[in-house]
Amino acid sequence: MTTTKRGRPRSFDREAALVQATLLFWQHGYEGTSISDLTAAMGISPPSLYAAFGDKRALFTEVVDRYGTTFGAFMEDALARERDPRAGFARMLEEAAVSYTDPGHPAGCLVISAATNYSPQTADVEQDLRARRTANVGSFEARLEDARARGALPEDADTRALAVYFAAVVQGMSQQARDGASTQELRRVARLAMNAWPEPPA
Amino acid sequence: MTTTKRGRPRSFDREAALVQATLLFWQHGYEGTSISDLTAAMGISPPSLYAAFGDKRALFTEVVDRYGTTFGAFMEDALARERDPRAGFARMLEEAAVSYTDPGHPAGCLVISAATNYSPQTADVEQDLRARRTANVGSFEARLEDARARGALPEDADTRALAVYFAAVVQGMSQQARDGASTQELRRVARLAMNAWPEPPA
DNA sequence: CTGATTTTACAGCGATCGCTAAAGAAAGTG
DNA sequence: CACTTTCTTTAGCGATCGCTGTAAAATCAG
């Protein structure tokens, strides 16, 4: 069943096509990327796209999911791999500065910028990305709560405010990157941002 | 010439129509707002809109210009009216927290969020708002340079990095507001953000 | 009043949107 | 070979996009 290969084989590389779709959505957003743009970049015709990926919405979801496990994976990785919570957030911001300005792909973060302007009929796409960002804030807060429980943050530290703050800084860095900020500028922003981290309870 | 009033008078309030257009563009962005949406909210027909405002692009420009002198005026006001530069930036962030979550209008900042996803044919609109944001960063930097010259910042303060940092924080706060953050949360973010301000040269 | 001027509502332009029916082309199966 | 399955291309669907031609309606000047 799973490996039966009957019928005419697909004549294009599905993964390569997905990468092209990712680059387009990343740069121009969901509504700013048309099926015509996608098929041109993928080198296929509309029916092939629909047969391989469903519809535009399903393709976008697949793109975003793949983005989270590749380009966007540095976030949770940085928080998880650094033992010291403060070092984890610092590393996350540093890596954001590098990733958001990588000339190998569009600037900024796809999840942050790909669906900010929603017309009524694409409100669900906007809501999807919003949920991912909200989950990210929650992830920050959980990590900060964990840090406090382990004594890496003062007992009275405002973990909720810190979580929203770090999310805002990351989103702001993404926007700045799209507006043309350099890697160096964003690295310095990342270091400035870490001044908000409270002193440990001594 | 200027006050000649010949012909049929306009049957709608141009200012009120402009406010309606502002609210729509603010919430749904440039591309997410159609002429049909606009005429419905304004209570007029397409020819009336085109006669009064030119085309969609001109209407949007007028909306953004008006936004800058009303809703968005708190930024330069805060920097200009506080004598102490640090107090000026702190006040700007505090007022952003309030304005971006004001239930009387859409969340966040129109200049920041109304044209982030640009399809090729609207790249000029995107570029227009981008220029306004870049000018804002430059304004921050000028104010910081002024602060350093007057001894309110250390001689070795990185004014460029601070300017990009504050711009990123403001943009992040706008995004967080659109994602549902509360006024209180953003106020606490504003206070945390001020920790990046360098100590005065003693 | 008549005539000139401007705005109005109605209808629809060409272009593009996301998407798909139809039929031919390329593979495996017998 | 014939048959089934799947992908391909061609062509175009209905809907919406920004925008406008046309003519009636409403005000002015004389």
From TrEMBL, chains A, B:
Listed PANTHER family: HTH-TYPE TRANSCRIPTIONAL REGULATOR YJDC, TRANSCRIPTIONAL REGULATORY PROTEIN
Origin superkingdom: Bacteria
Protein source organism: Streptomyces longwoodensis
Matches recorded under PROSITE patterns: HTH_TETR_1, HTH_TETR_2
Pfam families: TetR_C_13 (PF16925), TetR_N (PF00440)
Keyword Coiled coil: no
InterPro entries for the chain: DNA-bd_HTH_TetR-type_CS (IPR023772), Homeodomain-like_sf (IPR009057), HTH_TetR (IPR001647), Tet_transcr_reg_TetR-rel_C_sf (IPR036271), TetR_C (IPR011075)
Record GO terms (molecular function): DNA binding
Record-annotated membrane-spanning stretches: none
DNA-binding region, residues: 34-53
Name of protein: TetR family transcriptional regulator
Keyword match Mitochondrion: no
Keywords of the record: DNA-binding, Transcription, Transcription regulation
Domain HTH tetR-type: 11-71
